[in-house]
Design brief:
The structure is a single chain. The protein is an all-alpha fold and about 80 residues long. Helices cover about 75% and strands about 0% of the residues. It is built from 3 helices and no strands. The longest helix is centred in the first third of the chain and has 24 residues. The chain is rod-shaped and about 85 Å long.
């Protein structure tokens, strides 16, 4: 005689198998190793340092251009 199977369980098992197959494809297509991610992070940091190091003017910490403009305007008003 034939083996009796539960159709609901068979559908779930097939869906799990398809999901695992798709996940395996995605891992090979998009996945990177830990070393590759670390190497990319180090390259990004180096690029940021080079970019910041090539600025012509460096902003003063805690002082924005608006604050310095306002203080120079208020100094001129109090004199005259």
């Amino acid at each position: 005689m034939a083996e009796i199977i539960n159709l609901k369980d068979a559908r779930k098992a097939r869906a799990r198998a398809e999901a695992e197959t798709k996940a395996a494809e995605n891992r090979t297509r998009f996945g990177r190793t830990r070393d590759e991610r670390n190497r990319q992070a180090l390259e990004d940091q180096r690029a940021r340092r080079e970019h910041e190091g090539s600025r012509l003017e460096r902003p003063l910490p805690g002082k924005s251009a608006e604050k310095s403009k306002e203080s120079s305007d208020s100094d001129g008003d109090s004199q005259g």
